[in-house]
Design goal:
- The complex is a heterodimer.
- By secondary structure, chain A is mainly β.
- Chain A has no helices and eleven strands.
- In chain A, a hairpin with a 4-residue loop joins β7 and β8.
- The radius of gyration of chain A is 14 Å and the shape is globular.
- By secondary structure, chain B is an all-beta fold.
- Chain B has no helices and eleven strands.
- Classes of the chains: A mainly beta, B mainly beta.
- At the A-B interface, β4, β5 and β10 of A face β5, β9 and β10 of B.
Chain lengths: ~110, ~120
């Protein structure tokens, strides 16, 4: 089955700097890669996603890149703000027909004012 | 946007009690829903895939007799934690996939989660 690894586990940046979170996956047939932001005690919220036929996607300060050959994808947040502080999870949907998502271990991002 | 309602948000009960958690898709139909468990400062671990009108598919290591899943309609799935014990205390979150939208790569929409505490 699919296995997703995520790094780093914690990330501290100064407000205004960029933050990068990286994930790798094992199933070469995986074709959908969402990123979720979760605040303490709250539901995960989809912030951006990318499909396997696209190499990069951007939405304002957030971008995601996908390298299918290397089986890794990354989240880039530019001009970070304190409200970006949260736990971020990457996920991958495997190549089977179950539609289930396998999540990475999460990255705790702290943006220092 | 798509809304998933999960109820209750918080449960505190004695050991041995069975607890039912509901997950509803409010403005879309969901033939497939998912149940996750999240321990403090850990990731979301998929427990099972709930399929409308058929048996749930459980992930390896998840006891199907312990975690009963029923998906009797296109908008409701329930998870029952039977004879709960302190080690079952966790944050349980459901998600649903919009069955009406075309394309296999549609996002999952999450409920607010249920914090279960077994004394």
């Amino acid at each position: 089955g699919e296995n997703v690894e995520q790094h780093p586990s914690t990330l501290s940046v100064q407000e205004g700097d960029s933050a990068v979170i990286k994930c790798t996956y094992s199933d070469s047939a995986s074709n959908y890669f969402p990123w979720y932001k979760q605040e303490l005690g709250k539901r995960p919220q989809l912030i951006i996603d990318i499909r396997s036929n696209v190499g990069e996607k951007k939405d304002q300060r957030i971008a995601v890149t996908l390298n299918k050959t290397a089986k890794h994808f990354s989240l880039h947040i530019t001009e970070t703000q304190p409200e970006d502080s949260a736990v971020y999870f990457c996920a991958a949907r495997g190549g089977d027909s179950s539609y289930k998502l396998i999540f990475g271990s999460g990255t705790r991002l702290l943006v220092r004012p | 946007g798509a809304v998933v309602s999960q109820h209750p948000s918080r449960v505190i009960c004695k050991s041995g009690t069975s607890v039912k958690i509901e997950c509803r898709s409010l403005d879309f139909q969901a033939t497939t829903m998912f149940w996750y468990r999240q321990f403090p400062k850990q990731s979301l671990m998929l427990m099972a895939t709930s399929n409308e009108g058929s048996k749930a598919t459980y992930e390896q290591g998840v006891e199907k007799d312990k975690f009963l899943i029923n998906h009797a309609s296109l908008t409701l799935s329930t998870l029952t934690v039977t004879s709960a014990h302190p080690e079952d205390s966790s944050f349980y979150i459901c998600s649903a996939r919009d069955s009406d939208r075309l394309g296999s790569n549609q996002p999952q929409h999450f409920g607010d989660g249920t914090r279960l505490s077994i004394l």
